[in-house]
Amino acid sequence: MQNKSVFDKLGGQANIDAAVVKFYQKVLSDPSVSHYFKNTDMKKQTDMQQKFLGMAFGGPNHYTGRDMKAGHAGLGITTAAFDTIVKHLGDTLKEMGVPAEVIAEAAAVAETTRADIVEIK
């Protein structure tokens, strides 16, 4: 499994797509972060996140959205909010039976976006 991408370790795009749906259920149920999405078209957001994570985790690049900095500019995302979002991703993957070491790899990929997303330390 060492040479496989996170994309492959997660079981490909279909599993990533399912994870994103479950992930957003958690995020939107969490009042500490749900307000960031109050004016968001969640169908479009889910589709873009599925494509982004597929690409970010080493799968085919079908992502056509803005870069992370532009996409999150002006939202005032805090370090705590970013940490909460990453925790929701990890919890979702754990619930889906993903091994801890793969969850850690996915979190490491998410971590590479922190500087572009967090505006308020």
Automatic annotation (TrEMBL):
InterPro entries: Globin_bac-like_CS (IPR019795), Hemoglobin_trunc (IPR001486), Hemoglobin_trunc_I (IPR016339). GO terms for molecular function: metal ion binding; oxygen binding. One of its GO terms (biological process) is oxygen transport. Keywords: Heme, Iron, Metal-binding, Oxygen transport, Transport. Its cofactor is heme. It comes from the Eukaryota. Belongs to the truncated hemoglobin family. Group I subfamily. This is Group 1 truncated hemoglobin. It comes from Paramecium octaurelia.
